[in-house]
Amino acid sequence: MAKGLPVVAAIPNFNMGDSLGRLIPQVLAQGYDRVFVLDDASTDHTVDVVSDFGDDVHLVRNPENRGAGANRNQIIDQVEDGAIIHFIDADMDLETAEIPTVARELFERYADRGVGLIGGLVSRKDGSQEPLNYGAVFSVWGTLSGAYVVVDRYRERPRLAATMGRLAAPIAKDWPNILAPPIAAPAYWVHEGNMLVYSTVFRSLGGYDPILRSHEAQDLAIRLEKMGVKRQFDPSISVIHHHIDVRGKNRSKWENKAVVYLIRKHGLVRFLTER
Predict the structure, then answer these.
(1) What pLDDT was estimated at residue 248?
(2) CATH of segment(s) 7-273
């Protein structure tokens, strides 16, 4: 039962010292049992920013930059079994009050469904829902069914977007309908920038695959599915994403490498047939 479990905030960070300075006070006001900043060998003023909060925030640092997934894995040795980890990306603002209480309530709500990981709502500064809050299995079909990612490009042309949304609806059932208010739904993978997970589950998997610097959420979901652990999207915990890009020109390279790696890791047949 999740009712009495500690809830820990884990903030992955790389060169986002200014964002941390804005986010950490919001997190501390929420009443988490502990707050961690997981730093991926930042070269900016991150250490100084975190030190200003004294013992209220625990800084855990990679000695070298290893990527978002491996950085998140640093929480494994910091949190005991039987806790809820709330991963919050450093470039977020919190929109929900009393998040630890809401987190416990969510895991209670979905306990009978075998849910061990819950994704919250990630929105843009204008309030619009991001199209990648959750999605389908990493496969040919999953990629083709992600039509709302295309619809999102036409948000500023409402009539065209609505028409495209109606055409997309029959095949995009495993993706969020970005043209409608967000609603709770079972998910294959969720946005790791606002994600709740049982520490026991995360540790049993060994966390994210440290080789991956992209698509790590999809890989985690495939492994959770094999374990029989379900995933859920629920908008009850909401954040605003400021989209500070620290990947730069490496983003496309890492994404392409990840696709090849995941196909090799989980099998070409699975990639071509699973839906």
Answers:
(1) 67
(2) 3.90.550.10
